[in-house]
């Protein structure tokens, strides 16, 4: 393998890790915001439940007053009915008494409904309080976990940046420019490994004489894929396997976090 290509392979590996870390680090604020939103929603739910309970208590007081007022009216009519002289006036008062008693019964029904509903509102407030506690505890655990992962990613980022500088320093500047131009066009991947005599990334066959040269340790030429234009390299199967293993580990880590 061309010695510069070897450094480019290292550069590409570190660039891919850096891209993954960048995406990971960008994702943390979003996850924190989602966690905060869950806490805010639970707080909102508790506030709404408390408000409903308060309204129900107010209604209850109002209906209690209604019951008292209609009872008072019925009492007044009854007192008056002892003093009236005419039969007609007496009958009219009996009617009023009957009516007021009916209103007492209705107000008592409404009051009973309120009392039953009030118990339900109290249950809802307690449930919302418990839910908020749970959500807050979960959010705290999540925030701590994110902070730990964030710190680890930051450390890794600094390490990879230093490694990138090392890899960069080993490659001539114009080749780095060339690498970066191709990388920009191809989603950050400027190099393609040759496997089974084909470009691994686009699947197109590499010419036999190019493949022969790529396999030689003293090869000092740089070859490009004729189809996708990426820089080609050939790694001996053992080295390629180790590389694939490392790549699988990185993707496992990123999907886990
Ligand atoms: Zn290709």
Account of the protein in words:
This protein has 257 residues and is mostly helical. The protein has a domain at 25-158: Helix Hairpins, CATH 1.10.287.1490. 79% of the residues lie in helices and 4% in strands. The protein has helices spanning 3-81, 87-169, 173-185, 208-215, 237-256, and strands at residues 191-195, 198-199, 231-233. The protein has a 3-stranded mixed beta sheet with strand order 2-1-3. It is rod-shaped and about 130 Å long. The protein starts with a helix and ends with a helix. 14% of the residues are buried. The structure holds zinc ion. Zinc ion (ZN) binds at residues 192, 199, 201-202, 204, 225, 227-228, 230.
Count of separate DSSP helical elements: 5
CATH class of the domain at 25-158: Mainly Alpha
On the 0 to 100 scale, the average pLDDT is 91
Structural class, from secondary structure content? mainly alpha
Low-confidence stretches: 248-257
Largest sheet: spatial strand order: 2-1-3
Largest sheet: 3 strands, mixed
Shape: rod-shaped
**N-to-C CA distance:** 36 Å
CATH topology of the domain at 25-158: Helix Hairpins
Q: Helices and strands, in N-to-C order?
A: HHHEEHEH
């Amino acid at each position: 393998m061309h010695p510069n290509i070897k450094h480019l392979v290292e550069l590409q590996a570190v660039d891919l890790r850096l891209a993954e870390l960048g995406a990971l680090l960008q994702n943390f604020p979003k996850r924190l915001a989602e966690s905060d939103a869950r806490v805010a929603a639970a707080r909102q739910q508790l506030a709404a439940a408390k408000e409903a309970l308060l309204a129900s208590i107010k209604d209850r007081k109002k209906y209690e007053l209604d019951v008292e007022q209609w009872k008072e009216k019925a009492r007044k009519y009854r007192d008056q009915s002892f003093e009236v002289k005419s039969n007609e006036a007496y009958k009219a008062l009996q009617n009023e008494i009957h009516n007021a008693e009916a209103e007492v019964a209705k107000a008592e029904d409404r009051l009973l409904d309120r009392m039953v509903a009030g118990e339900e509102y109290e249950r809802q407030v307690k449930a919302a309080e418990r839910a908020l506690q749970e959500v807050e505890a979960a959010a705290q655990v999540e925030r701590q976990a994110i902070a730990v992962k964030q710190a680890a990613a930051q450390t890794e980022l600094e390490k990879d940046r230093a490694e990138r500088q090392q890899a960069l320093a080993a490659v001539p500047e114009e080749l780095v420019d060339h690498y970066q131009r191709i990388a920009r066009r191809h989603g950050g991947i400027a190099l393609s490994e040759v496997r089974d005599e084909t470009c691994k990334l686009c699947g197109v066959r590499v010419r036999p004489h190019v493949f022969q040269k790529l396999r030689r340790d003293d090869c000092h030429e740089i070859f490009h894929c004729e189809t996708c234009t990426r820089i080609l390299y050939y790694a001996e199967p053992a080295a390629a396997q180790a590389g694939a293993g490392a790549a699988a580990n990185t993707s496992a880590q990123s999907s886990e976090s």
